[in-house]
Amino acid sequence: MLLTITYEGENTQELGYLLHKNPERAQQFELSYGKAYVFYPEVSDTRTTAALLLDIDPLDLARGKVGSKDGGLFDYVNDRPYASTSFMSTAIVRIFGTAMSGRCDKRQELADTPLKLTATLSSLKDGGDTELAKELFEPLGYTVETQRSTLDAAFPEWGASPYIDLTISGTVKLSELLNHIYVLIPVFDKQKHYYIAEDEIAKLLGHGEGWLASHPQKEKITRRYFTARKSYARKALDILLADELPDEELTEEVETAEETEARTPLNTQRMETVRDAVLASGASSVIDLGCGECRLTSMLLTEPQIKKVTACDVSVAELEKAAQRLHLDRMQSYRKNKLTLMQASLTYRDKRFEGYDCACVIEVIEHIEPMRIPAFERAVFEFAAPKTVVLTTPNREYNANYAHMEENALRHGDHRFEWTREEFRAWTAHICEKFGYSCELGGIGDVDEALGTPTQIAVFSKAGRADE
Amino acid sequence: MDKYRIEIPELCLVAMVGGTSSGKSSFALKHFKPTEVLSSDFFRGMVCDDENCQSVSGDAFDLLYYAANKRLNNGKLTVIDATNLQESARKKVIDLAKEQNVHAAAIVLNLPEEIMQERNKARPERNFPERVIRQHCRDVKRCIRGLKREGFRFVFVINSLEQLENTEIVRTKLWNDKKECHGPFDIIGDIHGCCDELKLLLDKLGYVKTDGIYTHPEGRTAAFLGDFCDRGNRSADVLRLVMDMVKSGNAIAVPGNHDVKLLKYLRGKSVAMTHGIDKTIAELDARDDAFKSEVAAFIDGLISHYVLDDGKLVIAHAGLKQAYIGRGSVRVREFCLYGETTGETDTFGLPVRLDWAADYRGRATVVYGHIAAKEVRSQNNTFCIDTGCVFGGKLTAYRYPEKEFVDVDALQQYYEPVKPLEDGIDTDMGDMLTVGDFNRKLHIETALMPSIDIHENNSAAALEIMSRFAADPHWLIYLPPTMSPCETSELEDYLEHPLQAFEYYRSHGIRNVVCEKKHMGSRAVIILCRTPETALKRFGITDGTRGIIYTRTGRRFFDDAATESALLDRLDAVLTQTGFWQDLDTDWVCLDTELMPWSEKAQSLIRSQYAPTGNAGAGGLTAAVRALEAACRRQNNAFAVSPLTSGQNVDLEAVLKAYQTKRDDIERYTKAYREYCWTVKSIDDYRIAPFHILAVEGKVFSQEKHIWHMETIRKYITGKDPVFMETPYLCVDTEDEQSVQTGVDWWLSLTGSGGEGMVVKPETYTAKQGYNLLQPAVKCRGREYLRIIYGAEYLAPDHLSRLKVRSLNRKRTLALKEFSLGMESLTRFVNGEPLYRVHECAFGVLAFESEPVDPRL
């Protein structure tokens, strides 16, 4: 929340002209979430520093503006009032807007000249990614210095702070410096304080004009700038890169292993394998237990053999996403009649699960608390008891192949466990024994000779009655 | 002239039969409640605004029957006010009555044609041609004879205007309705000719033989569940004894399938000589014919089930579904005798039964027999007490309302069972919850608050949290309520202050309160059983554990099972050493506690939110202060400002001062949260402070005062093992100024060094003012501590003034509902109620604590 800009050279007081802010006058500006101050901690012929200090009202953040209908965006206890975030970017536009545009009627020549400038930002959140500041600013010709403290000196075991104090210096035009900072602050701290509308694409491209397209990290910058809006990132990159963009979907390197996986061929391969198993079982009605975004469901809807699909998830938010993905609100009645979406839990008995030929439980069991697994078993195999159950789950052994994973880590923060092949085999044997099923095991994905495949699959078939 | 009496059962489906203008509607409205009468005209109007429009009759009748069905579901008498002149129309009445297991009654208005024609002419708004009226009259006359055959159990025909005017309708009780009988009852399961055991059991139950008949000196009534005969060797004696007791009013009885089969035989029909009927027949053949006809008449007169004690108790031989209770039909009777089977047979050749009790959700206790097992089986408030006496098991009686079982062992095995008797699995315990009980709007009745509603969107949210995070619901017999803070302080520098807490109780008529130190930890509920066997038997826990520590949202406190069991072991050691288990006569306990350090549960919160905020704040504010200091050191010459500039002049010295305060505030904030963090290296580093002994076997301690809880905890739990620490407390008399001051001083000393504060509770566990439940506790948090809640700078005057504007109503209402639900779930558990009834309450608390979501897409 403190930005300083230092100009070194001759007649450096002229920084005041460039910023359109008089060095001899401290000023205050009203912002929608607090106040901003502009003042000059040092002024001399050879070195002048301007400071932009934001005073953000934490109460307004937490409660929303008095009289406004929406509640607050943040908790009372929050780093937003103190860290350098998108608030700073909006303040820069608001207060140094003219300087950003490069216009300076009184000193236009100076505004057009690269100057020796140094900028500092306090408490900029890089989440511990020490390379980030260098990756972003060095290609633009800055010398980058960062300082990082421990998170809490009283508890060194909590590790390092996720914030840095950043100093960048270089010989650039002031307008360039301001635009760089404007675009790159939200690239550090991905949480934006305002609603991201589509005009944000134009903002990014406008302030990035002349440098972003040639920045080696342009993809990363664009993606992180639009964290919550992947489609906007895509559009912006389409414009930025014209023909350079590869045809595959965007990948996000900071996402979890599972998320990465969801986009890779493995996920497609998994869904196809499951679909084939469903079709091979002869099923015409299927219940997708833990449907997530309904990737499998939408695949099954196109199969003539399948007359009825029910997709369940315990998370209403997931179901809403699924409904959007499937365009449920405008689906034609023939397809809509085949499909049911409903909230359901796998740890309760549910009569609505009964009567299907096949149940699919794809990458779900590892999200259930171990002490609840017996309830899950009964809900699926004793009460719903379809003829076929197709179940997949990660193979823990294979994790050794994921370079970025720590030892003993799980692929997703919500996984309660991941099974080795032997653990999975033992569990399936227990199911067959207890509930009268037979089972075929397999793997999905690249085969590692020693560690197996990333995904394990079991296809359970209800054993026929003895007298049949 | 005598009134023409129309007697119909108080629950039945009545069809009015009569032509247009016969006065059906006026008759119906005269004799029935307006809400009981469903008129086809009304529904025609409802679907098309025109009561006379015949073209919408299809839709109108669809709606009418939909409404009729709903009424009958609710056990409400219903009158169908339509002409019902066609047999096809009447068939719909009969079908619905059969479906709903109620009798159908027809009230026919067979008035002379002249009257009808006259009336028709008097109704200009819907004048039918004469021939229509004539046809209707003919139709009425023609249908009367066939009504009984069509399935109307009761038919009443009104032939004249005089009769019409002089009719009275009398509603009679159903035969199975003995709600006025309150017992107490001794309900006795399948006897099957085991007369010796029956006598022993009656002796044991305290019956004495007077004039050859068993009677109870305290006026208890025996209730026999049928199957008196077959397989055993004294069926005739059993029948004699039972008949005598029933005739003399000392017993009631329902028939069993064996008794009905015997009746069939006695009536000369052929029956298969299987399942031991041959033994009974041999016995009866040795008796005279008078005995046989007495037996036949007795069985014939038995009603298949009884609803007793204001509807709180139901007896039937093979049990009874909720929807059938108090209904009368062949289907209901057969269910009472045989239960419900799939129509398939198992490998022993026995019918495969459907588990009606698993779906039973009624509030009436259903006691039944029919299926023998080694032990009594209870499930969802139903009890199967056939314990296979004739197969060498025992004869069991259920004492109502005492809820006790009394049994005598069989003297011998009289008959070989087709398949070995199953163990008496307590199905309640191994039971699985059914989602249909929870994913909807819930209406929960509790002892403290008569009615608590939970909306569907809160249920949906709770379902997700329960499913994804909560521990096994068998353990979740209690979730703690949220707690409201006291009203905001009127003192300038405080957001919360004890004076408001004391004043809240004083002004609500509570003089004595208890202040308990608030430990800054995490709420933890601990359930500990002495052995895994107790956990299995009492809680239905099958994974071999004997206890649990869970959070206020029902989530297991420790991911690491070893830590949990180590803490539980230490608690057990203390309770064993202090004699807790003996003194409180229990083998399990449920405690409400605070578990420290806070950093243990809040680790991710601290690292992702609290510490970073302090860190960013310290960094940012230090830099800001430094820059401001530098700027202030420069000579700032104020100078003329052009009105065109955007900013306003500002006094930088004042800004500097404000930022110095902010910097100090963030330091205080960091100091405050650090107080509650320490690094746990071993079990010894944990601290657990119990403050309520919630429940033990047979008891919920909500009747005991807080002082009792504190003293009992001190006596049995704290002070022995450093892990279990005491909660300091202080009693305050809110009417006594000095006492109040002592309370305030105590709070100041607790919070001066950053302590969280205290909780103020009324002296009694639950407190009311009149009918209104009062807050069970209000918290009063320390001035420094609140920085962790409202932010480092909350004491700045412009912050505090805004924070003081807060409404506690929502929080307080929520606290009361959650408190009521918590106490209710404990009570239900302790009373041995079914799992779904206990879970409902815990589920409700979670629902209130969840952000609502809309389950509909």
Characterize the structure shown.
The complex is a heterodimer of chains A (468) and B (857). Chain A contains 16 helices and 14 strands. By secondary structure, chain A is an alpha/beta fold. Chain A has two domains: 2-194, 2-Layer Sandwich (c-terminal autoproteolytic domain of nucleoporin nup98), CATH 3.30.1610; 258-462, 3-Layer(aba) Sandwich (Rossmann fold). In chain A, helix 12 links the parallel strand 8 (285-289) and strand 9. In chain A, helix 6 (174-188) packs across helix 8, helix 7 crosses helix 9 (230-241) and helix 11 (265-280) packs across helix 12. With 857 residues, chain B is of the alpha/beta class. Chain B is built from 29 helices and 37 strands. In chain B, a hairpin with a 2-residue loop joins strand 31 (687-696) and strand 32 (699-700). In chain B, helix 5 (113-121) runs antiparallel to helix 6 (130-144) and helix 16 (456-469) packs across helix 29. The model of chain B has no long low-confidence stretch (mean pLDDT 91). Classes of the chains: A alpha/beta (468), B alpha/beta (857). At the A-B interface, strand 2, strand 3, strand 4, helix 2 and strand 5 of A face helix 16, helix 22, strand 30, helix 23 and helix 26 of B.
